[in-house]
Amino acid sequence: MNARTAFHGISRLFTQSRLAVAGLGVTQIIGYGTLYYSFSVLAPSMGADYGLASDWVFGAFSASLLVSGLASPWAGRWIDRYGAGAIMAPGSVAAAAALVLCAHSANIPSFFIGLVAIHLASTFVLYNAAFALLVQMDPETARIRITHLTLIAGFASTILWPVTTELHAYLSWREVYDVFAAAHIVVCLPVHSWLAMLSRSQRRLANRTMASTVEPMLSSEHIRAGFILMVCGFAFLGFVNAAILIHMLPILAALGLGGVSVLVGTLFGPAQVASRLISLLSGNKLRPLALALISTGLMSGAVALLLWTGSALTGAVAFAILFGLGSGLSSIAQGTLPLALFGSHGYGERIGKSTAVRLIASSAAPFVFAFILHRAGISLSLTICVGFGIMAAVSFALIARLQRRQDER
User: Fold this and answer.
1) Which residues have CB under 8 Å from 365's CB, separation 6+?
2) In angstroms, what is the C-alpha Rg of the chain?
3) Is 286 helix (H, G, I), strand (E, B) or coil?
4) Rounded to whole angstroms, how far apart are CA atoms 3 and 6?
5) How far apart are CA 47 and CA 370, in angstroms?
6) What distance in Å separates the CA atoms of residue 276 and residue 66, rounded to the nearest whole number?
7) Is residue 7 very low, low, confident or very high in pLDDT (cuts 50, 70, 90)?
8) Helices (DSSP H) in 83-215: which residue ranges?
9) pLDDT, tens only, 173-188
10) CA pair distance 12, 226, nearest whole angstrom
11) What is the C-alpha to C-alpha distance for residues 244 and 267, in angstroms, rounded to an integer?
């Protein structure tokens, strides 16, 4: 293979990688919006349909997150072995089938099975697989591509919360899920199928050229401790994120904001996008560990502000914006910190393990938060979230300490 042919091949893949980011952005908006964000809007109708209290509906949601967390390491291994593109295409079919299964569940057990199926399918189509695909395409540019992707996908809640609310005004929750299933087949499946072909093309080119890699920042003696601390940090932060996002609209309503709750909640998405845009425009100069610490501070501070200001509309608006800013940076850190600390080799399995612990920890959040909210009030619920945020910050700070010790040697 001569140099000119190699150059044209690499240039073509560069263009294709930008298209891949755009396509992935669309599928992530649909994926997160339909498989995750829509639940908080539809949960009251689900509970009424089955005669369940809302905290038990969120308990079923938590249990299904737990199952998907347990499955994440296996999904990561398959992604490393077969390629993320090859996994995401059948994942789209699985997501559609799971939504239909849940929509047509006749009783509580089949409803729970449907929720489990939804979150099992999500492990093959959401950020874990998308991040791994970008790393597999080109490890050296993966960090900037991940930022681009999260920038687009940040519109998921902004778009799907109002869309779900509007659809549900005319359709039952079951019919809404049927519509969402069709979106996975009509939009996501063709994009993921194209990405599967692109991934195979990239692998063939990589076999004929020198494939790039990203080396780990942590030495071998610190990798285990660093991984444990990173997983703990993302687990604590995952609890806060899951508790607040799933209950954002009920929280704002409980504070007495009434009909403006949805409007305030939609500020979260643009704030996510804004933080990612700021990161992008700054040239990604902040290291992933710094992003993790900043995001933790923003999210914890946002919850503390909401706790302090109570029912004040200005406080709720500031909370939604700050929490969105922190969540936006956190999504980037979840994809880039494992790559920076541990390198590109085995990235899929490593991020799968990290996600497993994070989901296992955060799977309790919707149920625990709903339980405390309804029995002890909103103040204690938000205080617990602030405490978990502080523990996340401590975990990330200890990783920075490990790095300083390593640099001093």
Assistant:
1) 62, 238, 239, 240, 242, 243, 246
2) 21
3) coil
4) 5
5) 13
6) 28
7) very low
8) 84-103, 108-122, 127-137, 142-153, 156-170, 173-183, 189-208
9) 999 999 999 999 999 9
10) 37
11) 14
pTM summary value:
0.74
**Number of continuous H segments (helices) and E segments (strands) in the chain:** 18, 0
Q: Retrieve residue 90's tokens.
A: 């059948």
For 20-29, b/e burial (b = at least 16 CB within 10 A) is bbebbbebbb
Spell 389-405 as b/e; 16+ CB within 10 A means b: bebbbebbebbeebbee
Pairwise CA distance, residues 34 & 275, whole Å:
23
Residue 180: φ, ψ to 5°: -65, -35
Convert the pLDDT of each residue in 360-395 to its tens digit. 777 777 777 777 877 777 788 888 889 999 999 999
The amino acid sitting at 80 is D
Report which residue type is found at 296: T
Cα 287 to Cα 337: distance, rounded to the nearest angstrom: 8
Dihedral angle sign, alpha carbons of residues 119, 295, 161, 185: negative
State whether residue 291 is helix, strand or coil: helix
DSSP one-letter string for 47-72 = HHHHT--HHHHHHHHHHHHHHHHHHH
CB 119 within 8 A of CB 35: yes
Q: List all residues 6 or more positions away from 364 whose beta carbon is below 8 Å from its beta carbon.
A: 62, 66, 239
- Only one residue has tokens 């290291």, namely 287
What single-letter DSSP state applies at residue 187?
Answer: I
The string of DSSP codes covering 358-405 is HHHHHTTHHHHHHHHHHHH-HHHHHHHHHHHHHHHHHHHHHHHHHHHH
Q: Rounded to an integer, what distance in angstroms lies between the CA atom of residue 147 and that of residue 130?
A: 12
Torsion of CA 168, 68, 189, 271, to 10 degrees: 60
Residues 186/95, Cβ–Cβ less than 8 Å? no
CA distance 377 to 130: 38
Within 10 Å of residue 215's Cβ, how many Cβ atoms? 10
